[in-house]
Design goal:
heterodimer, A: 152 residues, alpha+beta, DNA polymerase, domain 1, 5-stranded mixed sheet, globular, B: 726 residues, Aldehyde Oxidoreductase, domain 4, 7-stranded mixed sheet, 20 helices, 28 strands, 30% helix
Amino acid sequence: MAFSIQVNGKTRNIEASGDTPLLWVLRDILGLTGTKFGCGIAQCGACTVHVDGKAVRSCLLPVGSIGNRAITTIEGIGATPIGAKVQKAWLDLEVVQCGYCQPGQIMSASALLAITPNPDDSDINAAMAGNICRCGTYVRIRDAIKSAARST
Amino acid sequence: MPMTEKTTTTNEAAALSRRMLLKAAAGGGLLLGFQVPLARAADAPAGGGAFAPNAFIRIDRLGQITLIMPQVEMGQGVYTSHAMILAEELDARFDRVAVDAAPPSDALYGNPVFGVQATGNSNSIRAFWSKLRQAGAGTRATLVQAAAAQWNVDPASCRTENGEVIDATSGQRLAYGALSDAAAKLTPPADPPLKPVAEFKLIGKPLKRLDTPAKVDGSALYGIDMMPMGVKFATLAASPVFGGKIDHVDDSAAKSIAGVRQVVVLDDLVAVVGDHMWAAKKGLSALAIVWHEGANANVDSAAVRKQIQDASNRDGVVAKQLGDAGKALSNGDRIEAQFELPFLAHAPMEPMNCTVHVRPDGCDVWVGTQVCSRAQAIAAKVTGLPLEKVFVHNQIIGGGFGRRLEVDGIEKAVRIAQKVDGPLKVVWTREEDIQHDAYRPVYYDRLEATLKDGRIDGWKHRITGSSVIARWLPPGFRNGIDGDAVDSAVDIPYDIPNLRVEYVRDEPPAVPTGFWRGVGPNNNVFAIESFVDELAKKAGKDPVVFRRAMLSKVPRLKAALELAADKSGWGNPLPARTGRGVAVQVAFASFIATVAEVEVDPDGEVHVRRITSAVDTGIAVNPDTIVAQLQGGLIFGLTAALYGEITIAKGRVQQNNFNDYRMLRINQAPAIDVHLIASGEAPGGIGETGTTAAPPAVRNAIYAATGIALRRLPIDREILAGRKPA
């Protein structure tokens, strides 16, 4: 089937069965490889993207269910003020190790700050517990979210 | 230059990354992109006229310096720290260096410790410290010589700074790029003078990592992101029972799925090839596979455990002996304990993957591997091609932890790709990754000790477990002793007059074993430090006081212990069911003391509130990376202590994915304080140290909080809730 989806502000026409998870449309059809595959069952958060600004696990989101809603990926999040602020905090605090989970972490953190501009620890726990980091960068992720929240 | 190395990609990410590189170069002050995707170091640089005095440094006429990284970047920060060492001795501008992955070559890039090109054992800094300093210093000396010849002055009157040679007398300056042609005609000195430590400008500074910018904007490319033109996608199933073979496969349903192109059936696995991963995954689920389960179909965890316990009753090979342990252990009250560790999967966030293009005359392999030359060798073996026709494009790694010291994934991918026209990306599902690992071995440690005057007098430690070294690096297995399996046990830091350490090699039934972050010290530090806490209690002493009194021969560790105790508030009162536990270690040539503070709730759940580590790792090349590695390594160790266990039933791994092979999450992560001790000693290793430190510290904190002496990991909540005997 042919679908028209909105990715990072652009209309993309793709050919896929409607049950194809957005993750594989982004990665394998559109070549947007910044969104990562980690588990395929929405347990790790590596595939997190935004759909109309909300953090969603793309590995379980059928492309046929998206319609005209706006998809934002790690490749596009830097164009939003909150995304840019989060990325800067990630750089300033040197959060990253292997980096594989970090696109998902940044997408979850950006979605959190959009709703909760000054999150406390429990807000951060609630929003970020779905994103596993095997390298264990959690201490810095927490600090970077707070740092991004403080920055203007 | 083989044509295949020019393979272009369809990645938007690659295009973005290139743009970023150009933008950064135009901006001048920004870091250059850390890697040009799929470009090779051996390609002619843009500025032309490469000065390549050794395997690690390329300088073109425009002054672009490319540093070739012998060790793979898997999050530990080695691209940055190795670049810092080279740039330090070279006196290059660090904000203008680019780095690139080394191609396969044991001769040029072999790890001096292993003798093969391998990133592991936390030794990247230690192993390459001298070699990289010499490479940088030799290059610098050659550039000085070229400039001095041009100016007709004594090289001794010249100095270097920020990528320029300067004649102190006349003040003349020449940039390295301008000297590259002349320098290329000279022979670098064999034994160039190295900078005194006091003159280091880069080493010791917390510099920003070169790889971070691309990792926060999605442009970084891992092996799994490779997209050669025309690539197809495959996923596979190997026998769920270890060692099983394919009996037959009915692929009729799979082949009718849209996007499925091919089903590849080999003797021990089946793969579905499709237009994208989704088609391949759907196709794989639609296969009806009948397996020959083979000899391992009845192996289970109970059998594994019984075998290792039985083996641990045998006398082991003596790995270390001091005084008369037999005699000391027969005098007085002998304390005994046994400690056990389970199988563990590595579960790096980047699932196993490998992209391969096999042609009659050559083979390209795109993969993130800790063993680049072995990747080349296995692909050559499978294809029958000569080594020089196998091109391995090593990528940054989305988590290694030892998993990518193995080439099984590459071997499988090449075997599948041989049956497919054009490039093929093979990606394992997470389930396949959990169920077909080379697992951290089960270990069984028997410890015995006697006390005299409040100190340890007799000590016997028998370690039983699989020898990964015997398979992976046979020269490391000597006279029946696995040097890794006894590491941190034969060099136990305490003053113990009568000591005996034994090793029993016992390979588990069916389950393949491999190196896992922390390797041998993981087991030994856990067993020793847990037992020492029990001995302290017997002696009626505080665990810190008991340890400190026996550390007179290891002052660096003693200092770390005192600092960790001080910073953690050791001894301050705590609420009920809350406790602090300490663990010390000399592992990977670093000296570390760690205090964990935990609360054990009535249901037996353990809440780790805070971890404090004091670290003396010698000269800290990039101090911020060291702190980061401790923070992360501690979390990795906590995951193992609180959750990590692979169990076997009917010859199969019972865990599937992150739902039943749990990882610590941010809401469970404690506050972590790392205190770096300034030191001028030679650099130690750091990547695995936190992982060895956390489990015994947490175990001992639980002991302090509850009085329950856990002897096995992961922690058993039933025991801690009082519903099961310890």
